[in-house]
Amino acid sequence: MIKAGIVGGTGYAAGELLRILLNHPETEIQFIFSTSKAGEPVASVHRDLLGETDLHFSHELDSDIDVLFLCMGHGNSVEFLDSHPVDDSTRIIDLSRDFRLAPDQTYNDRRFTYGLPELQKEAVKNADNVANPGCFATAIQLALYPLANSSNLNEDVHIHGITGSTGAGSSMRETTHFSWRDSNVSIYKPLRHQHIGEVRQKIEQLDPNFDRELNFIPVRGDFTRGIFISAYTQSDLSAEQARELFKDYYQDSPFVHLSDEPIHLKQAVNTNKDLLHVAKEDGKLLITSIIDNLLKGASGQAVQNMNLMFDLDESAGLYLKPSHF
């Protein structure tokens, strides 16, 4: 059994991680570290786990673990590791953005591998530490990789992405209140979202000659979870040629599926899937990409990475069912 520890156990992503690991056939949770909730039952925070676990939050770290999941806010992983040294034999999967971008992928003697399996599965298999990708970055990259890999991303890319309220985390702020979010839509960080640097770095890994603009408008949606990406770019490829590129690129990716019909968000919510649809309109390729931001965009992908790192079936513990209503 893989002995797992979780740091920052009270947020939405941590709740989903707990749900997956509690039902994972090859893992055992040793502790859930939280200074603010130490001693309290996990189910007192993650109410959906009532009856699923008797675990309590802990203020102590157990060094006898195989993997440590860091589920903290951006910037806090470095701070935590500075004050809480982790045994060299313990693998780390970090869900923040602290180690995603070069040159910040090395911490002390630890090298963090970017953990998008659809980009570099073999590298993840051989990694001791993984930087889990961002949620928007995951959905956008999966929409663009087959084009970049085949040197068919030659024009500016225009991306529209809408995300649910859980993408902002569990801490309260004006734009996460129900009265503000309900029946409301707004943009934020237009053309300067932090995930675009992450996307560009990995596209250039596939196509070093890529030098076009990635124009991204992120949108706050009036729903709880999920990300809906629509990206378009001028292309000489036909729709069928593009679809064949996507099918070929993702043929060994168990969670990425190309749909012949237009897709909608509920098809992916509560699963670890990325669903894609490719169409051609007026000389432009239109790619739609949808994920659950808390699963394929965070905790589900973290467990997918863990499975690869420990030589398990990539899909172990991740056959989650979508909501149809």
Automatic annotation (TrEMBL):
<dbReference type="Pfam" id="PF01118">
    <property type="entry name" value="Semialdhyde_dh"/>
</dbReference>
<dbReference type="InterPro" id="IPR036291">
    <property type="entry name" value="NAD(P)-bd_dom_sf"/>
</dbReference>
<protein>
    <recommendedName>
        <fullName>N-acetyl-gamma-glutamyl-phosphate reductase</fullName>
        <ecNumber>1.2.1.38</ecNumber>
    </recommendedName>
</protein>
<comment type="function">
    <text>Catalyzes the NADPH-dependent reduction of N-acetyl-5-glutamyl phosphate to yield N-acetyl-L-glutamate 5-semialdehyde.</text>
</comment>
<feature type="domain" description="Semialdehyde dehydrogenase NAD-binding">
    <location>
        <begin position="3"/>
        <end position="127"/>
    </location>
</feature>
<keyword id="KW-0055">Arginine biosynthesis</keyword>
<dbReference type="Pfam" id="PF22698">
    <property type="entry name" value="Semialdhyde_dhC_1"/>
</dbReference>
<dbReference type="InterPro" id="IPR023013">
    <property type="entry name" value="AGPR_AS"/>
</dbReference>
<keyword id="KW-0028">Amino-acid biosynthesis</keyword>
<keyword id="KW-0560">Oxidoreductase</keyword>
<dbReference type="InterPro" id="IPR058924">
    <property type="entry name" value="AGPR_dimerisation_dom"/>
</dbReference>
<dbReference type="InterPro" id="IPR000706">
    <property type="entry name" value="AGPR_type-1"/>
</dbReference>
<dbReference type="InterPro" id="IPR000534">
    <property type="entry name" value="Semialdehyde_DH_NAD-bd"/>
</dbReference>
<feature type="active site">
    <location>
        <position position="135"/>
    </location>
</feature>
<dbReference type="InterPro" id="IPR050085">
    <property type="entry name" value="AGPR"/>
</dbReference>
<comment type="similarity">
    <text>Belongs to the NAGSA dehydrogenase family. Type 1 subfamily.</text>
</comment>
<keyword id="KW-0521">NADP</keyword>
<keyword id="KW-0963">Cytoplasm</keyword>
<comment type="pathway">
    <text>Amino-acid biosynthesis; L-arginine biosynthesis; N(2)-acetyl-L-ornithine from L-glutamate: step 3/4.</text>
</comment>
<dbReference type="GO" id="GO:0003942">
    <property type="term" value="F:N-acetyl-gamma-glutamyl-phosphate reductase activity"/>
</dbReference>
